[in-house]
């Protein structure tokens, strides 16, 4: 904390380095100093604090991927993290690094948005906790102050009967996704939706929660037609960026398909555990 307080914007935190080092190679980031936090063991723990799953910011992707506790308590994270790069990247990359990098095409920010996660920040002046919607500001931009360090994540624990799904599409395995969706969903004994969250990646400058689409399915039976209507509403008003990989119109269609697939999978998983 002393070093962050002293150097502020003039330094960068080095953890896994899977985002920072490529940016430095391309001269997109030019810090004069790096602060290596790899030996701060207290930031690499997975645990439970009341009604939340807690994950230290320095926890490696591979650790989350293979954690039986995460798979049991928050299966969406297990599903999402399997899409992150390749195994070599997941062996070094960290949860906090993915969050602080704030790439809207990254898997973990969207998964944490679907899970209504909270992020713990720490500085010499004290700590604070921000919800995901207050933390992500824009592409590669967060609410982290220059003297603050992201130290952990709090993920609210969901009921055991909650079904989850994470799907995305990339041109090659390990590439950044052209679009994807994270879904959590619960049904009552009558088959009506009692809880739903839908978050999108590569749909805007931050992870996108589809509030109107969630309200449409809330309290209804998730039939094929209802899921299709929900998927269509989920992308209304969005304007994903066009680039050489696909136009905005193409990405909108892709995102709608991703939502439909994720909802279908989540419903199937919910019914299998009822």
* Top CATH class of the largest domain: Alpha Beta
How many domains is the backbone divided into? Answer: 2
**Unreliable stretches, pLDDT < 50, 5 or more residues?**
none
Kindly report the average pLDDT value: 92
Strand runs, count = 13
Percent strand: 25-35%
Strand line-up across the major sheet: 3-4-9-5-6
Shape category: globular
CATH fold-level assignment of the largest domain: Uridine Diphospho-n-acetylenolpyruvylglucosamine Reductase, domain 3
User: CA-to-CA gap between the ends?
Assistant: 47 Å
Q: How many helices does DSSP assign?
A: 12
Helix content: 25-40%
Any idea what the CATH architecture of the largest domain is?
2-Layer Sandwich
Order of helix and strand elements from N to C terminus: HEHEEEHHHHHHEEHEEEEEEEHHH
Q: In terms of structural class, how would the helical and strand content be classed?
A: alpha+beta
Q: What characterizes the major β-sheet? A: 5 strands, antiparallel
Radius of gyration: 19 Å
Compile the SSE list and pairings:
Layout: H1 2-7, E1 11-14, H2 20-25, E2 33-36, E3 46-49, E4 52-56, H3 61-65, H4 68-73, H5 75-81, H6 87-92, H7 95-101, H8 107-114, E5 118-123, E6 126-131, H9 132-135, E7 136-138, E8 141-142, E9 149-156, E10 163-169, E11 179-187, E12 193-201, E13 208-209, H10 211-217, H11 224-234, H12 248-273
Parallel strand pairs: 1-2
Antiparallel strand pairs: 3-4, 4-9, 5-6, 5-9, 7-8, 10-11, 11-12, 12-13
């Amino acid at each position: 904390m002393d070093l962050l307080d002293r150097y502020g914007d003039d330094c960068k935190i080095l953890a896994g380095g899977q985002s920072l080092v490529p940016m430095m190679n391309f001269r997109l980031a030019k810090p004069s100093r790096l602060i290596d936090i790899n030996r701060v063991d207290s930031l690499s723990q997975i645990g439970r604090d009341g009604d939340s799953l807690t994950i230290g910011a320095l926890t490696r992707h591979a650790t989350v991927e293979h954690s039986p506790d995460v798979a049991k308590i928050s299966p969406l994270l297990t599903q999402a993290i399997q899409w992150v790069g390749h195994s070599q990247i997941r062996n070094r990359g960290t949860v906090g690094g993915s969050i602080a990098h704030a790439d809207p095409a990254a898997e973990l920010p969207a998964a944490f948005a679907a899970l209504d996660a909270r992020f713990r920040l720490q500085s010499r002046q004290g700590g604070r906790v921000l919800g995901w919607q207050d933390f992500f500001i824009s592409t590669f931009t967060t609410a982290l102050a220059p003297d603050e360090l992201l130290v952990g994540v709090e993920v609210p624990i969901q009921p055991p009967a909650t079904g989850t799904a994470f799907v995305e599409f990339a041109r090659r395995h390990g590439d950044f996704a052209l679009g994807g969706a994270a879904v959590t969903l619960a049904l009552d004994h009558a088959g009506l939706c009692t809880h739903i969250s839908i978050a999108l990646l590569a749909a805007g400058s931050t992870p996108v929660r589809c509030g109107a689409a969630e309200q449409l399915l809330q309290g209804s039976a998730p039939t094929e037609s209802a899921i299709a209507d929900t998927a269509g509403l989920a992308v209304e008003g969005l304007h994903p960026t066009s680039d050489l990989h696909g136009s905005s119109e193409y990405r909108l269609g892709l995102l709608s398909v991703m939502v439909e697939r994720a909802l279908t999978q989540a419903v199937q998983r919910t019914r299998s555990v009822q």
